[in-house]
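Re: the request from the purification team.
They wanted to know what the chain is likely to look like in 3D before they choose a buffer screen. I agreed to run a prediction and write the result into the notebook, where they can find it.
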Amino acid sequence: MKRALSTGIVLALAIAPVALTACNNNNRPRTTARRRATRPTSPGENVDDRGRCETDGVDREVSEYDTSGDEIPDVRRVFRRAGDPPLVRLVLTCREADLNGDGTKDVVRYYNDEGRPLREEADRNFDGQIDTITYFQDGRIVRQEMDDNADGRVDMKVFFDDNGVALRSERDIAGRSTPTQWHPDRWEYFERGRMVRMGTDIDGDGRVDRWDRDHERAPAPGEAVSELGGEAEGTNAEGTEAAGGGF
């Protein structure tokens, strides 16, 4: 049981740092404006790098950076000019990066009008399809949605507290969810970076049929645990959302 619990938390938490760190490198700037970005692979050649940032518009400025030392930009930032002269300022609206050097942008982060992150989309396995979406609120990570089996649908969600620490995750193991309806059948709860209990819906009725617990850390059945938002055994699993099924 302890092995299964450890595996779950590693999977839930190992995703975000890679994408976030890659987007924060700021070496070798090269600035352009109002052009559709391409990534040269040889002199005189341009190819589409599948960038998702909107670079067109008279109010846009684009900066590109080479963080790998191969003289080819792998990070792109897009800014919007805000205000009227002489009080014009640049506000970051989008940032994207090629993580594995294959010429394709693998992660993109979008920002609001204040330059705070709103959403990040990432291709973790480099197959050309978005499989992880991270949502922010007031600049903080609040939720991640993942497609672990590459079927184009969300099958795992992770929810975070105000400090960016995972509180719980929800999984759709049986594949009952649709693009408009989220039907998890496993709920995992964390405390101090460790899974303490896991509830499983075996028959698909939306209610937990079996609880597995880390008895060294988890509360007794029915005991109130405010930081986990727990409920007594046999009730509906908490925190279930009605929608959010597909990428």
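For the purification team: The longest strand covers residues 89-97.
Please add any questions underneath this entry.
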